[in-house]
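Example 9 (inverse folding). The structure is encoded as follows.
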């Protein structure tokens, strides 16, 4: 049986007390490995290593950091087959989809931040008061405690530590306890390039994460996870006034007006709603459709769902299993509680056999206050509501506690511009859904959290600003 250990100060190590947790293959529901269960002593070791490394890494030049990050990308490309096979074993994702849809953007994002490391700048020096010259220093924060989610373990690990080290910080990164495999491997690959202690990875559960957040060493905590976890992190971090970066999920509205390209909308929404089993905080799972096309759209989406396949990594499918048994039960519970006024028009059941597979599902005629509309299901379930006019569509789209991503479908430019202006979400797509580029920020408002991943805006979160003033007559 495989074992995934911590990576601290450039070395692979077991937990201090030898404790481990089981790691389950979601395609079978059976254990295939164990991972270190890190306690306070392990967190202390990792934080000390990161703090010691920061004393020299903070003085590295932008060109040095650029070279290191490009070297990480080169090393990952050399080990890409091993990384992806580990990720597939980790998550049960389809092999072909993982290679085509996750690897290219991930590598592009790493190389973007390699270049962005050399673009950190402030205002030009000047005399804003007579006889005194002021200038701005942009500096790293220090040690960053980071917790990555289980839906994209490898990519989210990259989103966490790469911008942090690009800005001159050092990190202690914890993967989810259900998906430690690819992050543990990534640590060894990247760690061979970086000075010891710049990147540290510790495996563990929620208590491990709590110990990281409460620890006195980090100057910043970055977490991608649930709203509950984010609120707990923000509260714990407030006691020492740590900077906090939170990405906490979404409930993306997909507003389809009567003049939209129905065929394009149905095929795109099915793909982006079911991709990764709907385990994506930007997934197109909450459709709000116009009155004239509502019936036709529901029929078209149901047909798309029936053509969509789920299955094991080597099969020709769009998505694999849900992450774990508890989460499968959560998704199944939502569907089982479908209100009487709503209708399941496609799917609606767990796939028979081993593993945590769930059918691609469409549920229509839902009302705004229904739990499936208000709460994030994080599964392969797309809901559809019928709006009466633009004002109601906007009200319903904004009428949830999440505010991460959204999309609008219309041929009317003025209508698209009004909606993009008034939708209260960190990202709005028009006549598409889910494309991301390294140059543009990802992050939301309200209970979706705050702070940005990707783009130069991410580096704003991982740096601090210092004003220096010099007396010219001294």
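The amino acid assigned to each position is listed next.
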């Amino acid at each position: 049986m495989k074992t995934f250990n911590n990576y601290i100060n450039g070395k692979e190590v077991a937990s201090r007390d030898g404790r481990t947790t089981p790691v389950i293959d979601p395609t079978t529901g059976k254990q295939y490995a164990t991972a270190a269960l890190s306690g306070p002593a392990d967190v202390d070791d990792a934080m000390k290593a990161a703090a010691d490394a920061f004393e020299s890494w903070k003085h590295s030049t932008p060109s040095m950091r650029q070279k290191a990050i490009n070297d990480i990308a080169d090393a990952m490309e050399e080990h890409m087959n091993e990384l992806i096979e580990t990720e597939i074993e980790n998550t049960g994702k389809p092999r072909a989809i993982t290679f085509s849809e996750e690897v290219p953007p991930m590598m592009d994002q790493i190389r973007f931040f390699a270049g962005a490391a050399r673009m950190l700048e402030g205002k030009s020096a000047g005399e804003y008061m007579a006889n005194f010259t002021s200038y701005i220093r942009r500096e790293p924060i220090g040690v960053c405690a980071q917790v990555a989610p289980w839906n994209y373990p490898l990519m989210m690990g990259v989103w966490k530590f790469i911008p942090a080290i690009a800005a001159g910080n050092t990190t202690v990164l914890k993967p989810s306890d259900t998906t430690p495999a690819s992050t543990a491997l990534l640590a060894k690959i990247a760690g061979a390039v970086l000075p010891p202690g710049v990147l540290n990875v510790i495996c563990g559960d929620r208590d491990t994460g709590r110990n990281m957040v409460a620890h006195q060493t980090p100057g910043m905590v970055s977490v991608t996870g649930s709203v509950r976890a984010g609120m707990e992190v923000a509260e714990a971090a407030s006691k020492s006034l740590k900077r906090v970066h939170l990405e906490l999920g979404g409930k993306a509205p997909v507003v389809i007006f009567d003049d939209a390209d129905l065929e394009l909308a149905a095929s795109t929404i099915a793909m982006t709603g079911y991709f990764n089993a709907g385990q994506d905080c930007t997934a197109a799972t909450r459709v709000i459709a116009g009155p004239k096309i509502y019936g036709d759209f529901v029929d078209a989406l149901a047909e798309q769902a029936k053509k969509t396949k789920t299955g094991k990594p080597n099969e020709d499918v769009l998505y694999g299993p849900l992450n774990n048994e508890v989460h499968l039960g959560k998704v199944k519970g939502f569907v089982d509680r479908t209100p009487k006024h709503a209708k399941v028009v496609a799917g609606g059941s767990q796939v028979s056999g081993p593993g945590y597979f769930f059918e691609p599902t469409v549920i229509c005629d839902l009302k705004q206050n229904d739990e499936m509309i208000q709460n994030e299901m994080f599964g392969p379930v797309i809901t559809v509501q019928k709006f009466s006019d633009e004002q109601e569509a906007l009200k319903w789209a904004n009428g949830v506690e999440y505010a991460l991503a959204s999309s609008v479908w219309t041929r009317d430019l003025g209508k698209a511009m009004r909606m993009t202006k008034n939708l209260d979400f960190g990202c709005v797509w028009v006549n598409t859904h889910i494309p991301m580029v390294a140059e543009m920020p990802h992050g939301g408002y309200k209970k979706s959290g705050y702070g940005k991943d990707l783009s130069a805006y991410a580096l704003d979160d991982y740096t601090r600003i210092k004003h220096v003033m010099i007396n010219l007559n001294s």
